Amino acid sequence: MSFWKTLDTLEKIFVIWAFVFQIVLIVHFAIRKPFFETYTEKYGWIVYTLCIPAVIISVVLIRGGKDWTYWVAGFIFLVYAIFGFWVDYVAKINFRNPFQPLVGIPYVILYLATIMFYWWPLWPISRLLWSIYTVLYVVAMVLNIRSH
Q: Using one digit for the tens of pLDDT, what is the confidence trace for 27-48?
């Protein structure tokens, strides 16, 4: 991991947060279905609150002069989290089964945009990190699909 020494502090913060976020999603998706009543219904909203550190990190990246590709994911995640929290916990719209496109499509687009903007900037940083994140993304996607 010789590339790590070439990264500045803000790039390291971005990389660490991108991986922490993806790992939290994997854990969340892995336990969502088997612990639906004890975890998901009561505490699943905590995943949405990760938008708070995401936005803080994005602001730090902006103030540090980083390219928009590093900080946009945090703000997309904020929009996704507000929308998802409102749909899941305030309005309690069951849009997943059966799938309701008017809610489901924006929800999925915002989720995927968040993930993609944590994933794509890893390519110029390190192909190894990008590849590892790709594997984690695939694991998260499979777990996410299976947990519905």
A: 999 998 777 677 777 888 999 9
